[in-house]
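Me: Here is a favour to ask of a fellow structure person. Could you put it straight underneath, so I can go through it closely?

Assistant:
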Amino acid sequence: MGIKILLLIAFFAVTVGVGLYCRKNTANVGDFVLGGRNVGPWMTAFAYGTSYFSAVIFVGYAGQFGWAYGVSSTWIGIGNAVIGSLLAWVVLGRRTRIMTKHFDSATMPDFFAKRYCCPWIRIAVAVIIFIFLVPYSASVYKGLSGLFSMAFGIDFTYCMIGMAVLTAVYVIAGGYMAAAINDMIQGTIMLIGIAAVVIVMLNQQGGLTGAMIGMSQFTAASAPEMKGAYASFFGPDPLGLLSVVILTSLGTWGLPQMVHKFYTIKSEAAIKTGTIVSTVFALIVAGGSYFHGAFGRLFVEAAPDGSIAFDDIVPAMIQNSLPDLLIGVVVILVLSASMSTLSSLVIASSSTFTLDFLKPVFVKNMDNSSQVKIIRGLCGVFVLISVMIALNPNNLITSLMSLSWGTLSGCFLGPFVWGLFWKKSTKMGAWASLVTGLGINMANFFTGYTTSIHAGAVSMIVSLLIVPAVSLITPKLPKQFVEEAFSCYDAEVMVAHKMALTEDEDR
Protein backbone atom coordinates (compact mmCIF):
# COMPACT_ATOMS: atom_id res chain seq x y z
CA MET A 1 0.00 0.00 0.00
CA GLY A 2 2.88 2.35 0.80
CA ILE A 3 4.39 1.91 -2.65
CA LYS A 4 1.04 2.51 -4.34
CA ILE A 5 0.49 5.70 -2.36
CA LEU A 6 3.99 6.99 -3.16
CA LEU A 7 3.45 6.35 -6.88
CA LEU A 8 0.13 8.17 -6.67
CA ILE A 9 1.59 11.20 -4.89
CA ALA A 10 4.41 11.44 -7.45
CA PHE A 11 1.93 11.27 -10.32
CA PHE A 12 -0.29 13.96 -8.81
CA ALA A 13 2.69 16.24 -8.14
CA VAL A 14 3.95 16.00 -11.74
CA THR A 15 0.48 16.50 -13.22
CA VAL A 16 -0.33 19.59 -11.19
CA GLY A 17 3.20 20.94 -11.62
CA VAL A 18 2.90 20.81 -15.41
CA GLY A 19 -0.44 22.60 -15.24
CA LEU A 20 0.95 25.42 -13.12
CA TYR A 21 4.06 25.68 -15.31
CA CYS A 22 1.96 26.12 -18.46
CA ARG A 23 -0.34 28.70 -16.90
CA LYS A 24 1.85 31.58 -18.06
CA ASN A 25 1.26 30.58 -21.70
CA THR A 26 -2.56 30.66 -21.63
CA ALA A 27 -3.23 34.37 -21.91
CA ASN A 28 -5.48 34.13 -24.97
CA VAL A 29 -8.00 31.69 -26.45
CA GLY A 30 -5.60 30.40 -29.13
CA ASP A 31 -3.02 29.45 -26.54
CA PHE A 32 -5.53 27.91 -24.11
CA VAL A 33 -7.49 25.90 -26.70
CA LEU A 34 -4.89 25.14 -29.40
CA GLY A 35 -1.51 25.52 -27.72
CA GLY A 36 -0.76 28.28 -30.21
CA ARG A 37 -0.95 25.73 -33.07
CA ASN A 38 2.67 24.96 -32.26
CA VAL A 39 2.58 21.43 -30.84
CA GLY A 40 5.19 19.00 -32.18
CA PRO A 41 4.48 15.60 -33.82
CA TRP A 42 5.40 13.36 -30.89
CA MET A 43 3.39 15.38 -28.43
CA THR A 44 0.41 15.56 -30.79
CA ALA A 45 0.57 11.81 -31.48
CA PHE A 46 0.63 11.00 -27.77
CA ALA A 47 -2.17 13.49 -27.14
CA TYR A 48 -4.23 11.77 -29.83
CA GLY A 49 -3.55 8.30 -28.45
CA THR A 50 -4.07 9.12 -24.79
CA SER A 51 -7.30 10.98 -25.59
CA TYR A 52 -8.44 7.92 -27.55
CA PHE A 53 -7.77 5.31 -24.87
CA SER A 54 -8.84 5.65 -21.25
CA ALA A 55 -10.20 3.63 -18.36
CA VAL A 56 -13.26 3.05 -20.56
CA ILE A 57 -11.15 0.96 -22.94
CA PHE A 58 -8.91 -0.76 -20.41
CA VAL A 59 -11.60 -1.49 -17.82
CA GLY A 60 -15.05 -1.26 -19.46
CA TYR A 61 -14.69 -2.23 -23.12
CA ALA A 62 -11.83 -4.71 -22.67
CA GLY A 63 -13.76 -6.50 -19.92
CA GLN A 64 -17.17 -6.60 -21.60
CA PHE A 65 -16.06 -7.38 -25.15
CA GLY A 66 -13.34 -9.76 -24.02
CA TRP A 67 -16.08 -11.69 -22.21
CA ALA A 68 -18.42 -11.53 -25.22
CA TYR A 69 -15.98 -12.29 -28.06
CA GLY A 70 -12.98 -13.95 -26.41
CA VAL A 71 -9.59 -13.68 -28.10
CA SER A 72 -11.19 -12.27 -31.26
CA SER A 73 -11.83 -9.04 -29.33
CA THR A 74 -8.18 -8.24 -30.11
CA TRP A 75 -9.45 -7.25 -33.57
CA ILE A 76 -11.03 -4.22 -31.93
CA GLY A 77 -7.61 -2.99 -30.84
CA ILE A 78 -6.16 -3.70 -34.29
CA GLY A 79 -9.04 -1.79 -35.88
CA ASN A 80 -8.40 1.12 -33.51
CA ALA A 81 -4.77 1.22 -34.64
CA VAL A 82 -5.36 0.85 -38.39
CA ILE A 83 -8.65 2.73 -38.90
CA GLY A 84 -8.86 4.95 -35.85
CA SER A 85 -5.21 6.05 -35.90
CA LEU A 86 -3.28 5.25 -39.10
CA LEU A 87 -6.03 6.04 -41.63
CA ALA A 88 -7.36 8.95 -39.56
CA TRP A 89 -3.96 10.65 -39.69
CA VAL A 90 -3.33 9.80 -43.34
CA VAL A 91 -6.77 10.83 -44.60
CA LEU A 92 -7.69 13.69 -42.26
CA GLY A 93 -4.46 15.02 -40.75
CA ARG A 94 -3.11 17.30 -43.48
CA ARG A 95 -6.45 18.54 -44.79
CA THR A 96 -7.78 19.27 -41.31
CA ARG A 97 -4.66 21.23 -40.37
CA ILE A 98 -4.70 23.28 -43.59
CA MET A 99 -8.41 24.07 -43.91
CA THR A 100 -8.96 24.89 -40.23
CA LYS A 101 -5.94 27.22 -40.43
CA HIS A 102 -7.44 28.77 -43.60
CA PHE A 103 -10.76 29.42 -41.85
CA ASP A 104 -8.98 30.36 -38.59
CA SER A 105 -11.16 27.81 -36.78
CA ALA A 106 -10.37 26.69 -33.23
CA THR A 107 -13.38 24.38 -32.82
CA MET A 108 -15.48 21.97 -34.86
CA PRO A 109 -18.67 24.13 -34.66
CA ASP A 110 -16.73 27.11 -35.99
CA PHE A 111 -15.33 25.02 -38.83
CA PHE A 112 -18.80 23.79 -39.80
CA ALA A 113 -20.23 27.32 -39.68
CA LYS A 114 -17.52 28.69 -41.97
CA ARG A 115 -17.26 25.71 -44.30
CA TYR A 116 -21.03 25.51 -44.86
CA CYS A 117 -21.78 29.27 -44.61
CA CYS A 118 -24.35 28.68 -41.87
CA PRO A 119 -24.05 30.45 -38.50
CA TRP A 120 -26.94 28.45 -37.03
CA ILE A 121 -25.11 25.15 -37.48
CA ARG A 122 -22.41 26.47 -35.15
CA ILE A 123 -24.91 26.75 -32.30
CA ALA A 124 -26.51 23.35 -32.92
CA VAL A 125 -23.15 21.56 -33.06
CA ALA A 126 -21.88 23.33 -29.92
CA VAL A 127 -24.93 22.26 -27.91
CA ILE A 128 -24.70 18.65 -29.14
CA ILE A 129 -21.01 18.51 -28.22
CA PHE A 130 -21.51 19.89 -24.73
CA ILE A 131 -24.42 17.54 -23.98
CA PHE A 132 -22.97 14.32 -25.37
CA LEU A 133 -19.40 14.66 -24.18
CA VAL A 134 -20.74 14.59 -20.63
CA PRO A 135 -21.71 10.86 -20.63
CA TYR A 136 -18.34 10.02 -22.18
CA SER A 137 -16.58 11.87 -19.36
CA ALA A 138 -18.84 10.15 -16.82
CA SER A 139 -17.88 6.74 -18.22
CA VAL A 140 -14.19 7.56 -17.73
CA TYR A 141 -14.79 8.49 -14.09
CA LYS A 142 -16.67 5.24 -13.48
CA GLY A 143 -13.90 3.11 -14.96
CA LEU A 144 -11.24 4.96 -13.03
CA SER A 145 -13.02 4.91 -9.69
CA GLY A 146 -13.75 1.18 -9.90
CA LEU A 147 -10.06 0.36 -10.25
CA PHE A 148 -9.13 2.77 -7.46
CA SER A 149 -11.66 1.16 -5.15
CA MET A 150 -10.06 -2.23 -5.81
CA ALA A 151 -6.49 -1.01 -5.30
CA PHE A 152 -6.93 1.23 -2.27
CA GLY A 153 -10.16 0.06 -0.66
CA ILE A 154 -11.62 3.57 -0.90
CA ASP A 155 -15.28 4.22 -1.69
CA PHE A 156 -15.58 4.96 -5.41
CA THR A 157 -17.44 8.23 -4.67
CA TYR A 158 -14.36 9.74 -3.03
CA CYS A 159 -12.18 8.40 -5.85
CA MET A 160 -14.30 10.21 -8.44
CA ILE A 161 -14.31 13.46 -6.51
CA GLY A 162 -10.52 13.32 -6.13
CA MET A 163 -9.97 12.68 -9.84
CA ALA A 164 -12.39 15.45 -10.75
CA VAL A 165 -10.54 17.99 -8.61
CA LEU A 166 -7.16 16.96 -10.07
CA THR A 167 -8.44 17.19 -13.65
CA ALA A 168 -9.99 20.58 -13.06
CA VAL A 169 -6.84 21.99 -11.46
CA TYR A 170 -4.35 21.21 -14.21
CA VAL A 171 -6.69 21.83 -17.16
CA ILE A 172 -8.02 25.13 -15.82
CA ALA A 173 -4.49 26.25 -15.00
CA GLY A 174 -2.55 25.18 -18.09
CA GLY A 175 -5.06 24.59 -20.89
CA TYR A 176 -4.22 22.50 -23.97
CA MET A 177 -0.42 22.72 -23.64
CA ALA A 178 -0.54 21.40 -20.07
CA ALA A 179 -2.75 18.56 -21.26
CA ALA A 180 -0.39 17.80 -24.17
CA ILE A 181 2.74 17.67 -21.99
CA ASN A 182 0.98 15.50 -19.44
CA ASP A 183 -0.26 13.28 -22.28
CA MET A 184 3.35 12.64 -23.31
CA ILE A 185 4.28 11.61 -19.77
CA GLN A 186 1.12 9.61 -19.22
CA GLY A 187 1.36 7.89 -22.60
CA THR A 188 4.82 6.58 -21.76
CA ILE A 189 3.45 5.11 -18.52
CA MET A 190 0.61 3.47 -20.48
CA LEU A 191 2.99 1.75 -22.92
CA ILE A 192 5.12 0.28 -20.14
CA GLY A 193 2.15 -0.71 -18.00
CA ILE A 194 0.18 -2.49 -20.73
CA ALA A 195 3.20 -4.56 -21.76
CA ALA A 196 3.87 -5.59 -18.15
CA VAL A 197 0.24 -6.54 -17.48
CA VAL A 198 -0.03 -8.77 -20.58
CA ILE A 199 3.26 -10.54 -19.88
CA VAL A 200 2.41 -11.30 -16.23
CA MET A 201 -1.12 -12.43 -17.12
CA LEU A 202 0.12 -14.89 -19.76
CA ASN A 203 2.86 -16.25 -17.51
CA GLN A 204 0.29 -17.05 -14.85
CA GLN A 205 -1.71 -19.09 -17.36
CA GLY A 206 1.26 -21.07 -18.67
CA GLY A 207 2.12 -18.76 -21.53
CA LEU A 208 0.11 -17.93 -24.65
CA THR A 209 -0.47 -21.61 -25.48
CA GLY A 210 -1.81 -22.38 -22.02
CA ALA A 211 -4.08 -19.33 -22.05
CA MET A 212 -5.48 -20.25 -25.48
CA ILE A 213 -6.11 -23.82 -24.38
CA GLY A 214 -7.94 -22.51 -21.33
CA MET A 215 -10.16 -20.25 -23.46
CA SER A 216 -10.97 -23.10 -25.84
CA GLN A 217 -12.72 -24.96 -23.03
CA PHE A 218 -15.58 -22.44 -22.83
CA THR A 219 -18.74 -22.77 -24.92
CA ALA A 220 -20.50 -19.64 -26.14
CA ALA A 221 -24.20 -19.48 -25.29
CA SER A 222 -24.82 -17.53 -28.52
CA ALA A 223 -23.15 -20.25 -30.61
CA PRO A 224 -23.24 -23.55 -28.68
CA GLU A 225 -22.42 -25.53 -31.81
CA MET A 226 -19.02 -23.80 -32.07
CA LYS A 227 -16.41 -25.63 -30.02
CA GLY A 228 -13.73 -23.29 -28.72
CA ALA A 229 -15.50 -20.18 -30.04
CA TYR A 230 -13.77 -17.88 -27.56
CA ALA A 231 -10.35 -18.95 -28.85
CA SER A 232 -11.31 -18.70 -32.53
CA PHE A 233 -10.27 -16.11 -35.14
CA PHE A 234 -13.55 -14.16 -35.34
CA GLY A 235 -15.26 -15.39 -32.16
CA PRO A 236 -18.90 -16.40 -31.62
CA ASP A 237 -20.47 -13.22 -33.07
CA PRO A 238 -18.53 -11.73 -36.04
CA LEU A 239 -21.28 -9.22 -36.89
CA GLY A 240 -21.41 -7.87 -33.35
CA LEU A 241 -17.62 -7.69 -33.34
CA LEU A 242 -17.69 -5.67 -36.58
CA SER A 243 -20.12 -3.17 -35.02
CA VAL A 244 -17.74 -2.57 -32.13
CA VAL A 245 -14.80 -2.12 -34.52
CA ILE A 246 -16.76 0.46 -36.54
CA LEU A 247 -17.94 2.34 -33.45
CA THR A 248 -14.56 2.51 -31.74
CA SER A 249 -12.40 2.97 -34.87
CA LEU A 250 -14.30 4.94 -37.49
CA GLY A 251 -15.98 6.93 -34.73
CA THR A 252 -12.78 8.87 -33.98
CA TRP A 253 -13.03 10.54 -37.41
CA GLY A 254 -16.04 12.51 -36.26
CA LEU A 255 -15.28 13.13 -32.58
CA PRO A 256 -14.47 16.79 -31.87
CA GLN A 257 -11.92 16.04 -29.15
CA MET A 258 -10.01 13.74 -31.53
CA VAL A 259 -9.89 15.79 -34.76
CA HIS A 260 -9.05 18.80 -32.59
CA LYS A 261 -5.54 17.32 -32.30
CA PHE A 262 -4.97 17.92 -36.02
CA TYR A 263 -5.80 21.62 -35.57
CA THR A 264 -2.88 22.04 -33.17
CA ILE A 265 -0.01 20.24 -34.91
CA LYS A 266 2.98 22.42 -35.76
CA SER A 267 3.31 21.77 -39.51
CA GLU A 268 2.40 19.48 -42.40
CA ALA A 269 5.78 17.76 -42.18
CA ALA A 270 5.11 16.85 -38.57
CA ILE A 271 2.04 14.86 -39.63
CA LYS A 272 4.18 12.04 -41.09
CA THR A 273 5.98 11.49 -37.80
CA GLY A 274 2.74 11.83 -35.88
CA THR A 275 1.09 9.16 -38.06
CA ILE A 276 3.72 6.54 -37.27
CA VAL A 277 3.95 7.31 -33.55
CA SER A 278 0.17 7.41 -33.10
CA THR A 279 -0.34 4.09 -34.90
CA VAL A 280 2.33 2.22 -32.93
CA PHE A 281 0.95 3.67 -29.70
CA ALA A 282 -2.59 2.53 -30.55
CA LEU A 283 -1.45 -0.95 -31.54
CA ILE A 284 0.32 -1.48 -28.22
CA VAL A 285 -2.20 0.18 -25.91
CA ALA A 286 -5.50 -0.78 -27.57
CA GLY A 287 -4.30 -4.16 -28.83
CA GLY A 288 -2.79 -4.97 -25.44
CA SER A 289 -5.90 -3.85 -23.53
CA TYR A 290 -8.35 -5.95 -25.56
CA PHE A 291 -5.96 -8.91 -25.66
CA HIS A 292 -5.67 -8.79 -21.87
CA GLY A 293 -9.44 -8.49 -21.42
CA ALA A 294 -10.01 -11.42 -23.76
CA PHE A 295 -8.88 -13.85 -21.05
CA GLY A 296 -11.32 -12.61 -18.40
CA ARG A 297 -13.10 -15.98 -18.27
CA LEU A 298 -9.93 -17.57 -16.91
CA PHE A 299 -10.02 -15.30 -13.86
CA VAL A 300 -13.68 -14.45 -13.24
CA GLU A 301 -16.76 -16.67 -12.98
CA ALA A 302 -20.30 -15.64 -13.84
CA ALA A 303 -22.97 -15.65 -11.13
CA PRO A 304 -25.15 -18.78 -10.81
CA ASP A 305 -27.83 -17.11 -12.91
CA GLY A 306 -25.28 -16.42 -15.66
CA SER A 307 -25.03 -12.69 -15.02
CA ILE A 308 -21.71 -10.88 -14.87
CA ALA A 309 -20.71 -7.38 -13.73
CA PHE A 310 -18.73 -6.37 -16.81
CA ASP A 311 -17.17 -3.30 -15.18
CA ASP A 312 -15.66 -5.54 -12.48
CA ILE A 313 -13.96 -8.07 -14.78
CA VAL A 314 -10.64 -6.30 -15.43
CA PRO A 315 -10.25 -5.04 -11.82
CA ALA A 316 -10.81 -8.63 -10.65
CA MET A 317 -8.25 -9.93 -13.18
CA ILE A 318 -5.69 -7.45 -11.93
CA GLN A 319 -6.37 -8.20 -8.29
CA ASN A 320 -6.12 -11.96 -8.87
CA SER A 321 -3.04 -12.01 -11.10
CA LEU A 322 -0.70 -9.12 -10.30
CA PRO A 323 1.64 -8.44 -7.37
CA ASP A 324 1.09 -5.28 -5.32
CA LEU A 325 3.86 -3.30 -7.04
CA LEU A 326 2.47 -4.00 -10.48
CA ILE A 327 -1.06 -3.20 -9.28
CA GLY A 328 0.31 0.22 -8.33
CA VAL A 329 1.77 0.60 -11.83
CA VAL A 330 -1.57 -0.41 -13.39
CA VAL A 331 -3.44 2.12 -11.26
CA ILE A 332 -1.09 4.84 -12.53
CA LEU A 333 -1.50 3.46 -16.06
CA VAL A 334 -5.28 3.73 -15.96
CA LEU A 335 -5.08 7.05 -14.16
CA SER A 336 -2.76 8.32 -16.91
CA ALA A 337 -5.08 7.14 -19.67
CA SER A 338 -8.12 8.60 -17.99
CA MET A 339 -6.69 11.97 -17.00
CA SER A 340 -5.52 12.62 -20.56
CA THR A 341 -8.91 11.70 -22.00
CA LEU A 342 -10.73 13.80 -19.42
CA SER A 343 -8.58 16.84 -20.12
CA SER A 344 -9.30 16.53 -23.83
CA LEU A 345 -13.05 16.22 -23.24
CA VAL A 346 -13.13 19.13 -20.81
CA ILE A 347 -11.26 21.49 -23.15
CA ALA A 348 -13.28 20.49 -26.23
CA SER A 349 -16.63 20.86 -24.47
CA SER A 350 -16.00 24.09 -22.57
CA SER A 351 -14.30 25.86 -25.49
CA THR A 352 -17.01 25.02 -28.02
CA PHE A 353 -19.80 26.00 -25.64
CA THR A 354 -18.14 29.36 -24.93
CA LEU A 355 -16.92 30.29 -28.42
CA ASP A 356 -19.76 28.81 -30.46
CA PHE A 357 -22.82 29.20 -28.23
CA LEU A 358 -22.44 31.78 -25.49
CA LYS A 359 -20.45 34.29 -27.54
CA PRO A 360 -22.56 34.37 -30.76
CA VAL A 361 -25.93 34.10 -28.97
CA PHE A 362 -25.57 36.05 -25.73
CA VAL A 363 -22.31 38.09 -25.61
CA LYS A 364 -21.29 39.01 -29.13
CA ASN A 365 -18.60 41.47 -27.98
CA MET A 366 -16.92 39.14 -25.49
CA ASP A 367 -13.22 40.07 -25.27
CA ASN A 368 -10.34 37.61 -25.22
CA SER A 369 -9.76 37.74 -21.49
CA SER A 370 -13.43 37.10 -20.74
CA GLN A 371 -13.49 34.15 -23.13
CA VAL A 372 -10.58 32.47 -21.34
CA LYS A 373 -12.19 33.06 -17.93
CA ILE A 374 -15.54 31.60 -19.04
CA ILE A 375 -13.86 28.59 -20.66
CA ARG A 376 -12.02 27.93 -17.40
CA GLY A 377 -15.25 28.24 -15.43
CA LEU A 378 -17.08 25.87 -17.76
CA CYS A 379 -14.26 23.34 -17.37
CA GLY A 380 -15.26 23.09 -13.71
CA VAL A 381 -18.98 22.89 -14.53
CA PHE A 382 -18.39 20.13 -17.08
CA VAL A 383 -16.38 18.08 -14.59
CA LEU A 384 -19.06 18.50 -11.93
CA ILE A 385 -21.92 17.34 -14.18
CA SER A 386 -19.87 14.35 -15.36
CA VAL A 387 -19.22 13.21 -11.81
CA MET A 388 -22.90 13.54 -10.88
CA ILE A 389 -23.87 11.23 -13.77
CA ALA A 390 -21.08 8.78 -12.97
CA LEU A 391 -22.33 8.46 -9.37
CA ASN A 392 -25.39 6.60 -10.66
CA PRO A 393 -24.50 2.93 -10.04
CA ASN A 394 -26.92 1.73 -12.74
CA ASN A 395 -24.97 3.31 -15.60
CA LEU A 396 -22.61 0.88 -17.31
CA ILE A 397 -19.31 2.27 -18.56
CA THR A 398 -19.79 0.90 -22.07
CA SER A 399 -23.38 2.17 -22.34
CA LEU A 400 -22.37 5.73 -21.47
CA MET A 401 -19.43 5.75 -23.87
CA SER A 402 -21.31 4.12 -26.74
CA LEU A 403 -24.12 6.66 -26.46
CA SER A 404 -21.62 9.51 -26.58
CA TRP A 405 -19.44 8.17 -29.41
CA GLY A 406 -22.40 7.00 -31.49
CA THR A 407 -24.31 10.27 -31.28
CA LEU A 408 -21.38 12.62 -31.80
CA SER A 409 -19.79 10.74 -34.67
CA GLY A 410 -23.20 9.85 -36.13
CA CYS A 411 -23.90 13.59 -36.36
CA PHE A 412 -20.48 14.94 -37.41
CA LEU A 413 -18.62 12.23 -39.35
CA GLY A 414 -20.21 12.85 -42.75
CA PRO A 415 -20.17 16.69 -42.70
CA PHE A 416 -16.59 16.76 -41.49
CA VAL A 417 -15.09 14.25 -43.94
CA TRP A 418 -17.07 15.42 -46.97
CA GLY A 419 -16.45 19.03 -46.00
CA LEU A 420 -12.70 18.46 -46.25
CA PHE A 421 -12.76 16.54 -49.53
CA TRP A 422 -15.85 17.35 -51.61
CA LYS A 423 -16.61 20.78 -53.02
CA LYS A 424 -20.27 19.95 -53.64
CA SER A 425 -21.23 19.17 -50.04
CA THR A 426 -23.93 21.59 -48.87
CA LYS A 427 -25.27 22.94 -45.61
CA MET A 428 -28.49 20.95 -46.04
CA GLY A 429 -26.40 17.79 -46.33
CA ALA A 430 -24.69 18.73 -43.07
CA TRP A 431 -28.02 19.43 -41.36
CA ALA A 432 -29.40 16.09 -42.60
CA SER A 433 -26.50 14.29 -40.90
CA LEU A 434 -27.08 16.13 -37.63
CA VAL A 435 -30.79 15.26 -37.65
CA THR A 436 -30.36 11.58 -38.56
CA GLY A 437 -27.42 11.02 -36.21
CA LEU A 438 -29.29 12.52 -33.30
CA GLY A 439 -32.56 10.85 -34.30
CA ILE A 440 -31.19 7.31 -34.65
CA ASN A 441 -29.33 7.33 -31.34
CA MET A 442 -32.03 9.08 -29.32
CA ALA A 443 -34.80 6.88 -30.74
CA ASN A 444 -32.81 3.81 -29.80
CA PHE A 445 -32.00 5.25 -26.35
CA PHE A 446 -35.67 5.64 -25.50
CA THR A 447 -36.98 2.49 -27.21
CA GLY A 448 -34.11 0.12 -26.49
CA TYR A 449 -34.56 -1.43 -29.93
CA THR A 450 -30.92 -2.53 -30.11
CA THR A 451 -27.65 -1.83 -28.29
CA SER A 452 -26.17 1.65 -28.29
CA ILE A 453 -23.15 0.14 -30.06
CA HIS A 454 -25.19 -1.05 -33.04
CA ALA A 455 -27.18 2.19 -33.18
CA GLY A 456 -23.98 4.24 -33.12
CA ALA A 457 -22.33 2.19 -35.87
CA VAL A 458 -25.44 2.48 -38.08
CA SER A 459 -25.68 6.24 -37.56
CA MET A 460 -22.05 6.68 -38.65
CA ILE A 461 -22.62 4.82 -41.90
CA VAL A 462 -25.83 6.79 -42.49
CA SER A 463 -23.93 10.04 -41.89
CA LEU A 464 -21.38 9.20 -44.58
CA LEU A 465 -24.16 8.31 -47.04
CA ILE A 466 -26.73 11.02 -46.35
CA VAL A 467 -24.43 14.04 -46.79
CA PRO A 468 -23.68 13.40 -50.49
CA ALA A 469 -27.22 12.17 -51.15
CA VAL A 470 -28.84 15.35 -49.82
CA SER A 471 -26.10 17.61 -51.20
CA LEU A 472 -26.81 16.45 -54.75
CA ILE A 473 -30.43 17.65 -54.59
CA THR A 474 -30.10 20.83 -52.50
CA PRO A 475 -28.82 24.34 -53.36
CA LYS A 476 -25.07 24.55 -53.80
CA LEU A 477 -22.77 26.91 -51.94
CA PRO A 478 -21.44 29.90 -53.93
CA LYS A 479 -18.87 28.62 -56.43
CA GLN A 480 -16.40 31.42 -55.73
CA PHE A 481 -16.49 30.70 -51.99
CA VAL A 482 -15.93 26.96 -52.48
CA GLU A 483 -13.06 27.44 -54.93
CA GLU A 484 -11.39 29.93 -52.62
CA ALA A 485 -11.81 27.58 -49.63
CA PHE A 486 -10.30 24.59 -51.42
CA SER A 487 -7.47 26.66 -52.92
CA CYS A 488 -5.76 26.42 -49.53
CA TYR A 489 -4.69 22.89 -50.47
CA ASP A 490 -2.90 24.14 -53.59
CA ALA A 491 -0.52 26.64 -52.02
CA GLU A 492 2.99 26.39 -53.45
CA VAL A 493 5.79 25.33 -51.13
CA MET A 494 9.39 26.46 -51.73
CA VAL A 495 11.88 23.64 -51.17
CA ALA A 496 15.47 24.39 -50.17
CA HIS A 497 18.21 22.55 -52.13
CA LYS A 498 22.00 22.55 -52.36
CA MET A 499 22.34 22.00 -56.11
CA ALA A 500 20.01 21.93 -59.08
CA LEU A 501 20.90 20.25 -62.37
CA THR A 502 20.27 22.10 -65.61
CA GLU A 503 18.59 20.31 -68.48
CA ASP A 504 21.93 19.77 -70.24
CA GLU A 505 23.68 18.49 -67.12
CA ASP A 506 20.84 16.10 -66.46
CA ARG A 507 21.49 14.45 -69.82
Remarks:
- The first helix runs from residue 2 to 22.
- Residues 2-302+313-394 form a domain with the Sodium/glucose cotransporter fold (CATH 1.20.1730.10).
- The CA atoms of residues 165 and 507 lie 69 Å apart.
